[in-house]
Amino acid sequence: MQENLIKISFSLNGNAVETEVSPELTVLEMLRRNFRLTAAKEGCGKGECGACTVMLNEQPINSCIKLAATLNKADSLVSVEGLNEDKLMKNIQDAYVEEGAVQCGFCIPGMTITSHYLLKNNPNPDAHAIKQALSGNICRCTGYRKIEAAVKKAADRSSKS
Amino acid sequence: MSNVEFIKPTSLQDACEALMKPDYLAIAGGSDLIVKMRNGMYPNLKGLVDISGLPPLNTIRTDENAVIIGSGCTMNQIAKDQLIKDYFPALAKAASTVGALQIRNSATIGGNVANASPAGDTIPALFTLVADIMIIGCNGRRQIPIVEFFLSPGKTKLAPGEIIEGFKLLLRKTRGEFLKLGERRAHAISKINMAVSTWNDGKNHYRIAMGSVAPTVLRCREAEEYLESSEQLDDNTIARAAEIVSETAKPISDLRSTKAYRKQMAGVLLKRALQNLR
């Protein structure tokens, strides 16, 4: 049987793009297969772990439980790759490395993009705000303390510069 | 290989017509539906009708003496809305505890209700706010009080071709609380949840509802009547009300929790909620 393909267009990392997706393809699968953007990862596949976090219209979402076919022309999708030149993201990534917050690394793209959202909206979060913001991102190596320390460090450094 | 048809209707009427066909499902946020699809719960799925892009569903508006919350409003949209926070704090709090940040940006209130989970967090809050469910179908519109909407887990009074358009709440200032217990403090499905709303129109009114303690969310009429007939909200009154809700709860043991724990916690949550509202 012929597979139904749906043509969609939206903005990806600042560029207008077009692609074709099957009805059940998730945004995560589309990013990885159609665009070869592999920072966002599938951990649980059901919205529990946050490894697939991307920004949709400036809000973090789980890309594993969003269908690509539901994207509209006005939608703006940003993945970690879209923040390669972003100063705040660079600062966050450096802080993660310096604090030894990266163990197996699988959760890190989701952690850093959620951290980026937090610091963009709350430049000086306290410990509770950091925990709360990252509560949808699970680290199976359970290295939360160093992750939280890295976010704090990035925040302190951004507010000084 | 997928041969599911994907429909993007441009009007509510088109959406309803598409949903008349057997095995066609509405999708909005998708946070429940996609997980169920992946778990193989819809082996005969023939079509998805994307209602997320229909603008009338995505707003919170006032209409004379009512507030209408569109079914497509996300949990974060509701949790951050100033009118909801001021008038319906139980609902704002419930919405802010659903899943985690990422889920709350996708999950919609209409989906939370239509999914009809006994653990759905916004449902007890809507019970206490005496919400009417606004339904649109191919033959027009109808309204059902939320207490009459649920039949069993996953089953509601929605007929084929019908969509929840929104929720109508009387524009009346309430005070309220929403509390839940899960395996961890954030991002967990409720073992039990409870909403309390109270308002005064010359007389104190209480509404109490709890989830995950029966096949559908339960309204706790007996405890409401007891509180409304009590002169003051002192420790003894709260303790007695807690005993009553504990008796009202009809939980089962399942993978999230046990019958005994849920029954006891029903009382504990009501006690905490009432202490916070005192």
Question: What's the structural blueprint in terms of helices and strands?
Answer:
The complex is a heterodimer of chains A (161) and B (278).
Chain A: E1 6-12, E2 15-21, H1 27-33, E3 53-56, E4 59-62, E5 76-78, H2 87-98, H3 108-121, H4 127-133, H5 144-160
Parallel strand pairs in A: 1-5
Antiparallel strand pairs in A: 1-2, 3-4, 3-5
Helix pairs in contact in A: 2-3, 2-5
Chain B: E1 5-7, H1 12-18, E2 24-27, H2 33-38, E3 47-50, E4 60-63, E5 66-70, H3 75-80, H4 82-87, H5 89-97, H6 101-106, H7 109-114, H8 122-128, E6 132-137, E7 140-145, E8 150-152, E9 155-156, E10 163-170, E11 175-181, E12 192-200, E13 204-211, E14 218-219, H9 221-229, H10 235-248, H11 259-277
Parallel strand pairs in B: 1-3, 2-3
Antiparallel strand pairs in B: 4-5, 5-10, 6-7, 6-10, 8-9, 11-12, 12-13, 13-14
Helix pairs in contact in B: 5-8, 9-10, 10-11
In short:
The complex is a heterodimer of chains A (161) and B (278). With 161 residues, chain A is an alpha+beta fold.
Can you describe this structure?
The complex is a heterodimer of chains A (161) and B (278). By secondary structure, chain A is an alpha+beta fold. Chain A is built from five helices and five strands, in the order E-E-H-E-E-E-H-H-H-H. Chain A has helices spanning 27-33, 87-98, 108-121, 127-133, 144-160; strands spanning 6-12, 15-21, 53-56, 59-62, 76-78. Chain A has a five-stranded mixed sheet, covered by helices on one side. The mean pLDDT of chain A is 95. Chain B has three domains: 5-50, Uridine Diphospho-n-acetylenolpyruvylglucosamine Reductase, domain 2, CATH 3.30.43; 55-170, 2-Layer Sandwich (Uridine Diphospho-n-acetylenolpyruvylglucosamine Reductase, domain 3); 177-277, CO dehydrogenase flavoprotein, C-terminal domain (Enolase-like, domain 1). Chain B has a five-stranded antiparallel sheet with strand order 4-5-10-6-7. A four-stranded antiparallel sheet of chain B has the order 11-12-13-14, with helices on both faces. In chain B, helix 5 (89-97) packs antiparallel against helix 8 (122-128). The longest helix of chain B is centred in the last third of the chain and has 19 residues, at 259-277. Classes of the chains: A alpha+beta (161), B alpha+beta (278).
